[in-house]
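[job 4417] fold queue: 2 targets
>>> target A
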Amino acid sequence: MFSWTYPNIDPIAVSLGPIVIRWYALAYLAGFLFGWRYCMKLALQSPSPLTPKLYDDFLFWAVLGTVLGGRLGYILFYQSDYYFNNPFEMLKIWHGGMSFHGGMMGVIIAAWMFTRHYKVPFFAFTDLLACVAPLGLGFGRLANFVNGELYGRMTTMPWGMVFPRGGDVLRHPSQLYEALMEGVVLFVIMFFLSRRASYRGRVGLLSGTFLSLYGLFRFAIEFFREPDIQLGFLYGGATMGQLLCLPMILFGVYVILWSERRLKRRSVV
Protein backbone atom coordinates (compact mmCIF):
# COMPACT_ATOMS: atom_id res chain seq x y z
CA MET A 1 0.00 0.00 0.00
CA PHE A 2 1.24 3.48 -0.85
CA SER A 3 2.09 5.70 2.10
CA TRP A 4 3.72 9.04 2.63
CA THR A 5 7.31 8.84 3.79
CA TYR A 6 8.16 10.53 7.05
CA PRO A 7 10.98 13.00 6.21
CA ASN A 8 12.98 12.13 9.35
CA ILE A 9 14.46 15.61 9.75
CA ASP A 10 17.30 16.10 12.21
CA PRO A 11 15.73 17.84 15.26
CA ILE A 12 18.93 19.87 15.62
CA ALA A 13 18.81 22.85 13.27
CA VAL A 14 22.25 24.30 14.04
CA SER A 15 25.20 22.77 15.87
CA LEU A 16 28.32 24.84 16.54
CA GLY A 17 30.51 22.95 18.97
CA PRO A 18 28.79 22.99 22.36
CA ILE A 19 26.06 25.30 21.03
CA VAL A 20 23.02 23.33 19.83
CA ILE A 21 19.89 24.99 18.48
CA ARG A 22 16.88 22.74 17.93
CA TRP A 23 13.97 23.25 15.57
CA TYR A 24 11.70 23.16 18.60
CA ALA A 25 13.42 26.22 20.08
CA LEU A 26 13.24 28.00 16.73
CA ALA A 27 9.52 27.20 16.53
CA TYR A 28 8.95 28.87 19.90
CA LEU A 29 11.06 31.83 18.81
CA ALA A 30 9.14 32.19 15.54
CA GLY A 31 5.81 31.95 17.36
CA PHE A 32 6.75 34.71 19.78
CA LEU A 33 8.25 36.99 17.12
CA PHE A 34 5.45 36.68 14.57
CA GLY A 35 2.83 36.82 17.31
CA TRP A 36 4.44 39.90 18.84
CA ARG A 37 4.58 41.76 15.51
CA TYR A 38 1.01 40.84 14.60
CA CYS A 39 -0.22 41.84 18.06
CA MET A 40 1.49 45.22 17.71
CA LYS A 41 -0.29 45.71 14.37
CA LEU A 42 -3.68 44.83 15.87
CA ALA A 43 -3.05 47.21 18.77
CA LEU A 44 -2.66 50.10 16.31
CA GLN A 45 -6.27 49.47 15.25
CA SER A 46 -7.57 49.20 18.83
CA PRO A 47 -8.85 51.96 21.08
CA SER A 48 -6.73 53.34 23.91
CA PRO A 49 -5.40 52.08 26.33
CA LEU A 50 -4.56 49.04 24.17
CA THR A 51 -1.45 50.59 22.65
CA PRO A 52 1.38 48.80 20.80
CA LYS A 53 3.74 49.72 23.63
CA LEU A 54 1.52 47.87 26.08
CA TYR A 55 1.89 44.62 24.11
CA ASP A 56 5.56 45.33 23.57
CA ASP A 57 6.01 45.44 27.34
CA PHE A 58 3.98 42.24 27.73
CA LEU A 59 6.26 40.14 25.49
CA PHE A 60 8.59 39.16 28.35
CA TRP A 61 5.59 38.29 30.55
CA ALA A 62 4.16 36.12 27.77
CA VAL A 63 7.44 34.24 27.28
CA LEU A 64 7.76 33.65 31.02
CA GLY A 65 4.14 32.53 31.38
CA THR A 66 4.37 30.18 28.40
CA VAL A 67 7.62 28.49 29.47
CA LEU A 68 6.88 28.21 33.19
CA GLY A 69 3.24 27.30 32.70
CA GLY A 70 3.97 24.85 29.92
CA ARG A 71 6.64 23.08 31.96
CA LEU A 72 4.62 22.97 35.19
CA GLY A 73 1.55 21.81 33.28
CA TYR A 74 3.48 18.92 31.74
CA ILE A 75 4.92 17.94 35.12
CA LEU A 76 1.54 18.01 36.88
CA PHE A 77 -0.68 16.60 34.13
CA TYR A 78 1.56 14.09 32.38
CA GLN A 79 4.52 12.85 34.46
CA SER A 80 4.08 13.97 38.06
CA ASP A 81 5.42 10.77 39.64
CA TYR A 82 8.61 10.80 37.59
CA TYR A 83 9.44 14.45 38.23
CA PHE A 84 8.58 14.36 41.91
CA ASN A 85 11.00 11.44 42.27
CA ASN A 86 13.59 13.23 40.09
CA PRO A 87 13.14 16.92 40.94
CA PHE A 88 16.29 18.13 39.17
CA GLU A 89 14.88 16.81 35.87
CA MET A 90 12.21 19.53 36.09
CA LEU A 91 14.82 22.09 35.09
CA LYS A 92 15.94 20.25 31.95
CA ILE A 93 13.50 21.86 29.54
CA TRP A 94 15.80 21.06 26.60
CA HIS A 95 14.86 17.39 27.06
CA GLY A 96 11.29 18.25 26.07
CA GLY A 97 8.07 18.16 28.02
CA MET A 98 5.75 21.14 27.58
CA SER A 99 1.97 21.27 27.90
CA PHE A 100 -0.14 23.67 25.85
CA HIS A 101 -2.86 23.79 28.50
CA GLY A 102 -0.25 24.63 31.13
CA GLY A 103 1.31 27.26 28.88
CA MET A 104 -2.11 28.78 28.24
CA MET A 105 -2.79 29.00 31.97
CA GLY A 106 0.63 30.58 32.45
CA VAL A 107 -0.14 33.27 29.87
CA ILE A 108 -3.60 33.89 31.35
CA ILE A 109 -2.10 34.38 34.82
CA ALA A 110 0.62 36.62 33.37
CA ALA A 111 -2.01 38.67 31.50
CA TRP A 112 -4.15 39.00 34.66
CA MET A 113 -1.17 40.26 36.67
CA PHE A 114 -0.05 42.54 33.83
CA THR A 115 -3.48 44.14 33.29
CA ARG A 116 -3.95 44.71 37.01
CA HIS A 117 -0.57 46.42 37.18
CA TYR A 118 -1.26 48.67 34.17
CA LYS A 119 -4.97 49.07 34.99
CA VAL A 120 -6.37 47.97 31.61
CA PRO A 121 -9.43 45.75 30.98
CA PHE A 122 -8.40 42.09 31.14
CA PHE A 123 -10.63 40.64 28.41
CA ALA A 124 -10.09 43.58 26.08
CA PHE A 125 -6.36 42.86 26.44
CA THR A 126 -6.67 39.09 25.92
CA ASP A 127 -8.90 39.51 22.87
CA LEU A 128 -5.84 40.54 20.84
CA LEU A 129 -3.73 37.75 22.38
CA ALA A 130 -6.39 35.27 21.24
CA CYS A 131 -5.93 36.42 17.64
CA VAL A 132 -2.18 35.75 17.64
CA ALA A 133 -2.09 32.53 19.69
CA PRO A 134 -2.74 30.25 16.66
CA LEU A 135 0.58 31.40 15.18
CA GLY A 136 2.53 29.89 18.05
CA LEU A 137 0.35 26.78 18.02
CA GLY A 138 0.99 26.17 14.33
CA PHE A 139 4.77 26.53 14.65
CA GLY A 140 4.80 24.32 17.75
CA ARG A 141 2.94 21.48 16.04
CA LEU A 142 5.28 21.61 13.06
CA ALA A 143 8.17 21.27 15.51
CA ASN A 144 6.46 18.23 17.04
CA PHE A 145 6.32 16.71 13.55
CA VAL A 146 10.01 17.41 12.93
CA ASN A 147 10.85 15.75 16.26
CA GLY A 148 8.75 12.72 15.34
CA GLU A 149 6.86 13.03 18.65
CA LEU A 150 3.17 13.13 19.57
CA TYR A 151 2.36 11.01 16.52
CA GLY A 152 -1.02 9.54 15.78
CA ARG A 153 -2.73 6.21 16.20
CA MET A 154 -2.38 3.37 13.71
CA THR A 155 -4.18 3.87 10.42
CA THR A 156 -4.76 2.32 7.00
CA MET A 157 -5.25 5.68 5.33
CA PRO A 158 -2.96 6.34 2.33
CA TRP A 159 -1.33 9.34 4.02
CA GLY A 160 -0.25 7.26 7.03
CA MET A 161 3.43 7.48 8.01
CA VAL A 162 5.92 5.26 9.81
CA PHE A 163 7.43 7.32 12.63
CA PRO A 164 10.83 6.31 13.99
CA ARG A 165 9.52 6.13 17.56
CA GLY A 166 6.16 4.62 16.65
CA GLY A 167 7.12 1.14 15.52
CA ASP A 168 6.88 -0.37 12.06
CA VAL A 169 3.24 0.61 11.49
CA LEU A 170 1.46 3.39 9.63
CA ARG A 171 0.22 6.18 11.86
CA HIS A 172 -1.80 9.35 11.49
CA PRO A 173 0.45 12.43 11.18
CA SER A 174 -1.66 14.00 13.92
CA GLN A 175 0.88 16.80 14.44
CA LEU A 176 0.03 18.04 10.93
CA TYR A 177 -3.69 17.76 11.67
CA GLU A 178 -3.15 19.96 14.70
CA ALA A 179 -0.93 22.41 12.81
CA LEU A 180 -3.70 22.75 10.22
CA MET A 181 -6.70 23.06 12.56
CA GLU A 182 -5.17 24.74 15.63
CA GLY A 183 -2.78 26.85 13.58
CA VAL A 184 -4.01 27.68 10.09
CA VAL A 185 -7.79 27.26 10.37
CA LEU A 186 -8.07 28.84 13.82
CA PHE A 187 -5.87 31.76 12.76
CA VAL A 188 -8.03 32.40 9.67
CA ILE A 189 -11.22 32.30 11.75
CA MET A 190 -9.81 34.68 14.37
CA PHE A 191 -8.43 36.95 11.62
CA PHE A 192 -11.80 37.43 9.94
CA LEU A 193 -13.70 37.77 13.21
CA SER A 194 -11.24 40.40 14.46
CA ARG A 195 -11.91 42.46 11.34
CA ARG A 196 -15.64 42.63 12.04
CA ALA A 197 -16.64 45.69 14.03
CA SER A 198 -19.47 43.74 15.68
CA TYR A 199 -16.93 41.32 17.20
CA ARG A 200 -14.29 43.90 18.09
CA GLY A 201 -16.90 45.89 20.01
CA ARG A 202 -17.83 42.98 22.26
CA VAL A 203 -15.18 42.65 24.94
CA GLY A 204 -14.29 39.02 25.63
CA LEU A 205 -15.97 37.59 22.55
CA LEU A 206 -12.71 36.89 20.72
CA SER A 207 -11.14 35.38 23.85
CA GLY A 208 -14.10 33.08 24.40
CA THR A 209 -14.22 32.09 20.74
CA PHE A 210 -10.55 31.12 20.74
CA LEU A 211 -10.85 29.06 23.92
CA SER A 212 -13.94 27.16 22.78
CA LEU A 213 -12.75 26.54 19.20
CA TYR A 214 -9.27 25.42 20.21
CA GLY A 215 -10.81 23.08 22.78
CA LEU A 216 -13.18 21.61 20.19
CA PHE A 217 -10.45 21.20 17.55
CA ARG A 218 -8.01 19.61 20.00
CA PHE A 219 -10.69 17.34 21.47
CA ALA A 220 -11.57 16.03 17.99
CA ILE A 221 -7.96 15.51 16.86
CA GLU A 222 -7.18 13.57 20.03
CA PHE A 223 -9.22 10.71 18.52
CA PHE A 224 -6.43 10.36 15.93
CA ARG A 225 -3.49 11.00 18.27
CA GLU A 226 -1.74 8.24 20.22
CA PRO A 227 -2.30 8.82 23.94
CA ASP A 228 0.76 9.43 26.09
CA ILE A 229 2.33 6.06 26.84
CA GLN A 230 2.67 6.73 30.57
CA LEU A 231 -1.03 7.63 30.85
CA GLY A 232 -2.89 5.72 28.15
CA PHE A 233 -6.66 6.13 28.05
CA LEU A 234 -8.28 7.60 31.13
CA TYR A 235 -11.86 8.10 32.25
CA GLY A 236 -14.37 6.78 29.73
CA GLY A 237 -11.61 6.11 27.21
CA ALA A 238 -10.70 9.80 27.02
CA THR A 239 -7.13 11.05 26.77
CA MET A 240 -5.57 13.59 29.11
CA GLY A 241 -5.70 16.16 26.28
CA GLN A 242 -9.46 15.66 25.92
CA LEU A 243 -10.07 15.93 29.65
CA LEU A 244 -8.11 19.19 29.79
CA CYS A 245 -10.06 20.55 26.83
CA LEU A 246 -13.46 20.14 28.49
CA PRO A 247 -13.07 22.94 31.08
CA MET A 248 -11.45 25.05 28.38
CA ILE A 249 -14.51 24.68 26.12
CA LEU A 250 -16.92 25.38 28.98
CA PHE A 251 -15.01 28.46 30.11
CA GLY A 252 -14.85 29.71 26.51
CA VAL A 253 -18.63 29.38 26.17
CA TYR A 254 -19.07 31.12 29.52
CA VAL A 255 -16.92 34.07 28.38
CA ILE A 256 -18.94 34.33 25.13
CA LEU A 257 -22.22 34.39 27.08
CA TRP A 258 -20.77 36.91 29.55
CA SER A 259 -19.76 39.12 26.63
CA GLU A 260 -23.27 38.96 25.16
CA ARG A 261 -24.90 39.79 28.50
CA ARG A 262 -22.48 42.67 28.99
CA LEU A 263 -23.40 44.09 25.59
CA LYS A 264 -27.13 43.82 26.31
CA ARG A 265 -26.74 45.60 29.69
CA ARG A 266 -24.86 48.45 28.00
CA SER A 267 -27.56 48.68 25.30
CA VAL A 268 -30.31 48.96 27.94
CA VAL A 269 -28.42 51.69 29.77
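>>> target B
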Amino acid sequence: METLETINKRASLKAHLSSREIEPEKIVKILDAARLAPSARNRQPWRFIVVQGREAVEALVSSVFSETNQIVKRAPVIIIACANPGDDVVIDGREYYLFDVGLAVGNMLLAATDLGLVTHPMAALNEDRLKDVLEIPYEVRFVIATPLAYPAEESYAEAAKERLGQRTRKVLNECVYSNTWGHPFGVY
Protein backbone atom coordinates (compact mmCIF):
# COMPACT_ATOMS: atom_id res chain seq x y z
CA MET A 1 0.00 0.00 0.00
CA GLU A 2 1.30 3.48 -0.80
CA THR A 3 1.80 5.82 2.15
CA LEU A 4 -0.83 8.36 1.07
CA GLU A 5 -3.29 5.57 0.35
CA THR A 6 -2.70 4.20 3.84
CA ILE A 7 -3.28 7.63 5.36
CA ASN A 8 -6.55 7.95 3.45
CA LYS A 9 -7.74 4.46 4.47
CA ARG A 10 -7.03 4.73 8.21
CA ALA A 11 -10.21 5.00 10.26
CA SER A 12 -11.03 4.57 13.94
CA LEU A 13 -13.82 2.01 14.12
CA LYS A 14 -13.78 0.40 17.56
CA ALA A 15 -17.23 -1.10 17.06
CA HIS A 16 -15.99 -3.25 14.18
CA LEU A 17 -13.26 -5.36 15.77
CA SER A 18 -12.82 -9.07 15.28
CA SER A 19 -11.53 -11.27 18.09
CA ARG A 20 -9.35 -13.17 15.58
CA GLU A 21 -5.80 -13.54 16.89
CA ILE A 22 -3.07 -11.42 15.30
CA GLU A 23 0.10 -13.03 14.06
CA PRO A 24 3.06 -12.15 16.34
CA GLU A 25 5.14 -10.96 13.36
CA LYS A 26 2.50 -8.33 12.56
CA ILE A 27 2.58 -7.03 16.13
CA VAL A 28 6.37 -6.81 15.92
CA LYS A 29 6.21 -4.92 12.60
CA ILE A 30 3.76 -2.41 14.08
CA LEU A 31 5.87 -1.85 17.19
CA ASP A 32 8.99 -1.56 15.05
CA ALA A 33 7.30 1.13 12.96
CA ALA A 34 6.64 3.03 16.20
CA ARG A 35 10.24 2.55 17.32
CA LEU A 36 11.54 4.07 14.09
CA ALA A 37 9.70 7.39 14.59
CA PRO A 38 11.75 10.56 14.84
CA SER A 39 12.23 12.09 18.27
CA ALA A 40 13.75 15.25 19.69
CA ARG A 41 17.49 14.74 20.09
CA ASN A 42 16.82 11.03 19.52
CA ARG A 43 15.70 10.55 23.15
CA GLN A 44 12.92 8.10 22.12
CA PRO A 45 10.88 8.57 25.31
CA TRP A 46 8.10 6.18 24.28
CA ARG A 47 7.37 2.88 25.95
CA PHE A 48 4.71 0.44 24.79
CA ILE A 49 2.88 -2.15 26.82
CA VAL A 50 1.28 -4.96 24.82
CA VAL A 51 -1.66 -6.66 26.52
CA GLN A 52 -2.91 -9.76 24.75
CA GLY A 53 -5.00 -12.79 25.48
CA ARG A 54 -8.73 -12.77 25.99
CA GLU A 55 -8.67 -12.80 29.80
CA ALA A 56 -5.96 -10.14 30.10
CA VAL A 57 -7.63 -7.78 27.60
CA GLU A 58 -11.07 -8.16 29.18
CA ALA A 59 -9.69 -7.60 32.69
CA LEU A 60 -7.76 -4.50 31.63
CA VAL A 61 -10.63 -2.94 29.70
CA SER A 62 -13.17 -3.71 32.45
CA SER A 63 -11.06 -2.18 35.16
CA VAL A 64 -9.55 0.94 33.57
CA PHE A 65 -11.36 1.98 30.37
CA SER A 66 -14.36 4.33 30.28
CA GLU A 67 -17.85 2.94 29.78
CA THR A 68 -17.92 4.11 26.15
CA ASN A 69 -14.74 2.15 25.40
CA GLN A 70 -15.81 -1.20 26.88
CA ILE A 71 -16.53 -2.43 23.35
CA VAL A 72 -12.80 -2.91 22.72
CA LYS A 73 -12.87 -6.00 24.97
CA ARG A 74 -13.23 -8.11 21.84
CA ALA A 75 -9.83 -6.98 20.50
CA PRO A 76 -7.10 -9.60 20.84
CA VAL A 77 -4.47 -6.94 21.63
CA ILE A 78 -4.43 -3.60 23.45
CA ILE A 79 -1.34 -1.42 23.11
CA ILE A 80 -0.68 1.20 25.77
CA ALA A 81 1.68 4.06 24.88
CA CYS A 82 3.48 5.69 27.80
CA ALA A 83 6.46 7.92 28.41
CA ASN A 84 8.64 8.95 31.30
CA PRO A 85 8.91 12.75 31.23
CA GLY A 86 12.29 12.30 32.93
CA ASP A 87 13.56 10.69 29.70
CA ASP A 88 12.53 13.78 27.75
CA VAL A 89 14.65 16.49 26.28
CA VAL A 90 13.57 19.96 27.36
CA ILE A 91 14.67 22.79 25.06
CA ASP A 92 14.04 26.37 26.13
CA GLY A 93 11.51 25.12 28.70
CA ARG A 94 9.53 23.14 26.13
CA GLU A 95 8.88 19.43 26.74
CA TYR A 96 8.90 17.14 23.70
CA TYR A 97 7.85 13.74 25.02
CA LEU A 98 4.16 14.01 24.08
CA PHE A 99 5.01 15.11 20.56
CA ASP A 100 7.54 12.29 20.24
CA VAL A 101 5.09 9.67 21.48
CA GLY A 102 2.49 11.07 19.07
CA LEU A 103 4.90 10.57 16.17
CA ALA A 104 5.56 6.98 17.25
CA VAL A 105 1.85 6.24 17.66
CA GLY A 106 1.15 7.78 14.25
CA ASN A 107 3.66 5.38 12.70
CA MET A 108 2.05 2.51 14.60
CA LEU A 109 -1.47 3.38 13.41
CA LEU A 110 -0.36 3.63 9.79
CA ALA A 111 1.60 0.37 9.95
CA ALA A 112 -1.45 -1.39 11.40
CA THR A 113 -3.65 -0.01 8.61
CA ASP A 114 -1.11 -1.10 6.02
CA LEU A 115 -1.20 -4.63 7.48
CA GLY A 116 -5.01 -4.75 7.30
CA LEU A 117 -5.66 -4.16 11.00
CA VAL A 118 -7.96 -1.77 12.85
CA THR A 119 -6.90 0.68 15.57
CA HIS A 120 -8.78 3.27 17.61
CA PRO A 121 -6.70 5.69 19.71
CA MET A 122 -8.28 6.29 23.11
CA ALA A 123 -7.36 8.38 26.11
CA ALA A 124 -10.51 7.91 28.21
CA LEU A 125 -9.31 5.67 30.98
CA ASN A 126 -8.32 5.86 34.60
CA GLU A 127 -4.54 6.44 34.57
CA ASP A 128 -4.06 5.70 38.29
CA ARG A 129 -5.94 2.42 37.97
CA LEU A 130 -3.99 1.57 34.78
CA LYS A 131 -0.73 2.06 36.65
CA ASP A 132 -1.94 -0.20 39.47
CA VAL A 133 -3.16 -2.97 37.15
CA LEU A 134 -0.08 -2.98 34.89
CA GLU A 135 2.42 -2.02 37.63
CA ILE A 136 3.56 1.07 35.73
CA PRO A 137 5.94 3.26 37.77
CA TYR A 138 4.42 6.43 39.21
CA GLU A 139 6.64 8.78 37.17
CA VAL A 140 5.62 7.22 33.84
CA ARG A 141 2.71 8.95 32.12
CA PHE A 142 0.00 7.24 30.12
CA VAL A 143 -0.41 8.90 26.70
CA ILE A 144 -2.78 6.82 24.56
CA ALA A 145 -4.16 3.30 24.17
CA THR A 146 -5.40 1.49 21.10
CA PRO A 147 -6.97 -1.86 20.42
CA LEU A 148 -5.31 -3.80 17.63
CA ALA A 149 -7.58 -6.16 15.74
CA TYR A 150 -8.61 -7.50 12.40
CA PRO A 151 -11.77 -5.85 11.11
CA ALA A 152 -15.05 -7.67 11.67
CA GLU A 153 -15.51 -8.76 8.07
CA GLU A 154 -19.30 -8.60 8.01
CA SER A 155 -19.50 -4.97 9.04
CA TYR A 156 -16.17 -3.23 8.58
CA ALA A 157 -16.05 -2.43 4.85
CA GLU A 158 -19.38 -0.62 4.83
CA ALA A 159 -18.70 1.15 8.14
CA ALA A 160 -15.26 2.28 6.95
CA LYS A 161 -16.69 3.57 3.68
CA GLU A 162 -19.38 5.50 5.57
CA ARG A 163 -16.96 6.84 8.19
CA LEU A 164 -14.39 7.95 5.65
CA GLY A 165 -17.15 9.54 3.55
CA GLN A 166 -18.21 11.58 6.58
CA ARG A 167 -14.68 12.55 7.58
CA THR A 168 -14.27 16.28 7.78
CA ARG A 169 -10.96 18.03 7.72
CA LYS A 170 -10.13 21.68 7.43
CA VAL A 171 -9.23 22.77 3.93
CA LEU A 172 -5.58 23.65 3.46
CA ASN A 173 -6.08 27.42 3.56
CA GLU A 174 -7.66 27.04 7.04
CA CYS A 175 -4.57 25.39 8.52
CA VAL A 176 -1.64 26.30 6.26
CA TYR A 177 -0.17 29.76 6.20
CA SER A 178 2.50 30.86 3.76
CA ASN A 179 4.09 34.15 2.90
CA THR A 180 4.15 33.02 -0.76
CA TRP A 181 0.66 31.51 -0.94
CA GLY A 182 -1.05 34.74 0.02
CA HIS A 183 -2.12 33.61 3.48
CA PRO A 184 0.16 35.39 5.93
CA PHE A 185 -0.35 34.29 9.53
CA GLY A 186 2.15 36.48 11.25
CA VAL A 187 5.87 37.03 11.29
CA TYR A 188 7.94 34.47 9.38
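[job 4417] complete. Note on B: The chain has one domain: 3-152.
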